[in-house]
Amino acid sequence: MKPFSYERVSSPAEAAAAAARAGGAKFIAGGTNLLDLMKLEIETPRHLVDVTGTGLDEITETDEGGLRIGALVSNTALASDERVKRDYAVLSRAIVAGASGQLRNKATTGGNLLQRTRCPYFYDTNQACNKRKPGSGCAAKEGVSRQLGIVGVSDACIATYPGDMAVALRVLDAVVETVKADGTTRAIPLGEFHRLWGDTPHIETVLEPGEMITAVTLAKPLGGTHIYHKVRDRRSYAFALVSVAAVLDADGKGRVAIGGIAPRPWRVEAADAALPDVKAAARALTQGASPTDQNAFKIALVERTLAGVMAKARGEAA
Predict the structure, then answer these.
(1) Do 75 and 107 meet the contact criterion of CB atoms below 8 Å apart?
(2) How far apart are the C-alpha atoms of 27 and 5, rounded to whole Å?
(3) Cβ(217)–Cβ(110) under 8 Å?
(4) Domain FAD-binding PCMH-type, which positions (predicted)?
(5) Which helix (H) or strand (E) holds 77?
């Protein structure tokens, strides 16, 4: 691990200012992904800003009838909140489907959104990776790519966004709140938060240097049936090959977002409009796919997983 300096701050504005002042800084809270990356020297921040004292660890109700989730709310606290379990069950189920209990106790809402890809070539510093070292190439394209992306990818990178929580947040139309070093704030729809890779896969979000996530807001409850289904190689503690977050009405119409196939939680307006027609929705979700020989199966897996979710919503499956 490379040497770094460290400071602890007590407010979001102070955190953003400290990060901007130091240069080469990273925020740290749970550290469940960042510390691993620092040990491998994939992340080499010169300065860490500890934000655990900024008071962003509460879930509060908004004037519009939704919820505001502080960036430091742990995954365990969020998944077990009675309001979330009752009104946003897809979010609770998605969080429980990810990681281990120990990790969920430490992982935070803000940090979860910023976790980086689990592409094996990103973690292997002996391999070419445009995301880790821009301009070095993408070893994954000719390598083991079973887990990697099929839509929204580019010639520079075929990695996927790895998380579960964000897939549910995407189907709920969540909004990310931030603060910048100059004290100004932003509200960023989650659908615009993660970038597609293009020619710059090392730039993963629209956050500016020093900009800090302060909260995630949810609109008032949608009602309907909430389902999160994750297909993976192991029953637990594995990232999704394909996951589906769905909020469905009794007639099968509704909205879906897909995980495990793209640089960000993947939601397509035409797919929502096509429901309850599974085949048409799946075609919309995978339109323009450019899979490798090893992960072309994900096109069919999207349709089959979505069909399973629809059957479950109709009470035809466990």
Answers:
(1) yes
(2) 12
(3) no
(4) 1-223
(5) helix 75-80
- Residues 6+ positions from 280 with CB-CB distance below 8 Å: 271, 274
Adjacency order of strands within the sheet including 47-50:
5-8, 47-50, 25-28
Locate 247 and state its tokens.
């909020």
Residue with tokens 């990273």: 26
Mark 182-195 as b/e (b = at least 16 C-beta within 10 Å): eeeeeebebbebbb
The number of residues in the chain equals: 318
pLDDT tens per residue, range 206-260: 999 899 999 999 999 999 999 999 999 988 788 999 999 999 999 999 999 999 9
Tell me if 241 sits within 8 A of 172, measured CB to CB: no
Are 165 and 277 in contact, with CB atoms under 8 Å apart? no
pLDDT in tens, 194-209: 999 999 999 999 999 8
Q: What is the model's pLDDT at position 316?
A: 75
Percentage of residues in the chain having pLDDT higher than 90: 92
